[in-house]
């Protein structure tokens, strides 16, 4: 009986076990969408696709993406989606067991909340190499500009794949600088203003920016590069951090080992970089007045501690409304950290109240015979039934033990003074009672007037000149990222251009031969 009960728990764990750390998230007009990898089955699971303004994720429902190419365990995930006035569409990117980048398209059944597969393709057959620990980031630039996918090559440099005019094209590295995979993130305000961020080393994050003159410019922070910036033509041996340049902050709990970096841009075109540090806390770096600086952490009511150091996270944002949602695991559950209506909301657990009881699309290996005989299937049915009885008995015992433990704890608490839930122990969590900061409030690296504190005698090589400007000023005029470089046009603030979506693979247009043959190994 003990053996039977244990095997039942193993079967149960395969269904309800927490998803693997890899997380992808994006927002549509209907609300956020999340995709995760289950660490036991390797399947990609997703939140219900027919919700509005909320993510509903269940650990027991059958929401599993149906794929032709199997994801490798530990694959990075990236995705984008949109509403076409009829249904929600998802475009998911991952890395296969053969270490190739795959793309899958899904349409939502708005009644059941299930994604229906529309096609699965390998999109990386023309790339020279993909790092075994590569990250992934994707941007949907609209119907004309198409997709941009970013990943690490075997040397750790960040490379770009582009999809436009119905073809995937390898566009090479955006910088030849060293990297520390897999942490990688990207955001854009329009197709001529893209920012890609990647872990560089134990002290710095690399920031690479696509500008209106169609050139990638690369720098690092908090320490700048020698010369301030490089382009993708500069060889790696000629790219070094300026170890003597002054800088006005350090990255808290950063050791270059973060699993993820998130990027977001708000309505004022202010760029933000998110990560979970080795202290398991969420951290935020923001570019204001063309200078990077650290924002203060919120209390655990708003920014809870992640389950693991350097944990994976996913960030989704809406530029027009400045809404930001951040997803990572807290106490074994997927949590949502949200900034909306100009304030932080108490974090919530993303969980569907009840499993959706209906038939879902078949996952990886659709239509294959399980190979089990009738007798074997009957045996499994009996075993699961007996296991369910055993599980019920064990759960009853656990509930009783938990109740006794809770009663004892309450009794002891009556004889002890209350403890401060946010102690001043040098951690990045604020003291109890400290008002939480707004999304955009000043902190380390800035004085209240939004200017860098303790400015060095000479300007930082990764900031602008000292002329007073505000990144929040969105009048149409040239803005420059680096001093003395008029080519580095940041943005003519004509607003985000996100209308329309790229034509999808398999829905018209000519494509490379390997993209027409999902079954090709």
Automatic annotation (TrEMBL):
Keywords: Membrane, Signal, Transmembrane, Transmembrane helix. Residues 508-521 have a biased composition (Basic and acidic residues). Residues 495-505 have a biased composition (Low complexity). Gene3D superfamilies: Fucose-specific lectin. Residues 409-521 are annotated as: Disordered. It comes from the Eukaryota. The chain crosses the membrane at residues 378-401. Residues 1-21 form the signal peptide. This is Fucose-specific lectin. It comes from Remersonia thermophila.
């Amino acid at each position: 009986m003990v053996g039977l009960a244990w095997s039942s728990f193993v079967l149960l764990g395969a269904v309800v076990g927490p998803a693997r750390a890899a997380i992808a998230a994006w927002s549509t007009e209907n609300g956020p969408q999340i995709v995760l990898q289950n660490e036991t089955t390797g399947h990609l699971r997703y939140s219900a696709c027919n919700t509005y303004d909320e993510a509903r994720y269940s650990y027991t429902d059958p929401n599993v993406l149906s794929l032709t190419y199997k994801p490798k365990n530990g694959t990075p995930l990236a995705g984008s989606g949109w509403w076409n006035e009829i249904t929600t569409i998802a475009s998911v990117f991952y890395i296969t067991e053969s270490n190739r980048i795959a793309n899958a398209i899904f349409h939502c059944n708005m009644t059941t909340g299930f994604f229906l597969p529309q096609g699965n393709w390998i999109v990386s057959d023309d790339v020279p190499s993909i790092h075994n620990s590569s990250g992934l980031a994707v941007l949907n630039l609209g119907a004309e500009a198409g997709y941009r996918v970013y990943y690490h090559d075997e040397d750790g440099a960040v490379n770009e794949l582009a999809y436009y005019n119905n073809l995937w094209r390898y566009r090479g590295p955006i910088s030849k600088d060293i990297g520390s995979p897999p942490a990688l993130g990207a955001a854009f305000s329009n197709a001529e203003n893209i920012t890609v961020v990647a872990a560089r080393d134990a002290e710095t994050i690399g920031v690479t920016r696509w500008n209106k003159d169609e050139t990638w410019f690369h720098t690092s922070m908090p320490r700048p590069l020698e010369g301030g910036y490089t382009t993708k033509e500069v060889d790696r041996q000629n790219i070094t951090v300026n170890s003597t340049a002054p800088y006005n902050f350090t990255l808290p709990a950063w050791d270059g080992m973060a699993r993820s970096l998130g990027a977001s841009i708000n309505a004022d075109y202010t760029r933000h970089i998110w990560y979970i540090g080795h202290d398991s806390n969420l951290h935020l770096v923001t570019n204001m007045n063309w200078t990077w600086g650290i924002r203060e952490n919120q209390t655990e009511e708003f920014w809870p501690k992640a389950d693991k150091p350097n944990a994976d996270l996913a960030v989704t944002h809406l530029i027009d409304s400045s809404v930001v949602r951040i997803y990572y695991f807290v106490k074994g559950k997927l949590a949502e950290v949200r900034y909306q209506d100009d304030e932080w909301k108490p974090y919530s657990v993303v969980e569907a109240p009840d499993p959706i009881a209906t038939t879902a699309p078949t996952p990886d290996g659709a239509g294959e015979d399980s190979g089990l005989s009738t007798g074997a299937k009957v045996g499994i049915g009996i075993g699961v039934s007996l296991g369910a009885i055993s599980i019920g008995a064990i759960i009853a015992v656990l509930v009783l033990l938990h109740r006794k433990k809770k009663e004892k704890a309450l009794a002891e608490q009556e004889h002890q003074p209350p403890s401060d839930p946010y102690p001043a122990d040098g951690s990045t969590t604020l003291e109890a009672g400290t008002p939480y900061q707004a999304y955009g409030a000043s902190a380390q690296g800035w004085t209240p007037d939004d200017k860098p504190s303790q400015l060095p005698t000479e300007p930082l090589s990764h900031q602008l000149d000292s002329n007073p400007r505000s990144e929040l000023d969105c009048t149409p005029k040239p803005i420059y990222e680096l001093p003395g470089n008029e080519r580095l046009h940041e943005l003519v603030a004509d607003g985000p251009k996100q209308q329309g979506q790229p034509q999808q693979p398999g829905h018209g247009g000519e494509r490379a031969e390997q993209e027409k043959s999902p079954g090709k190994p």
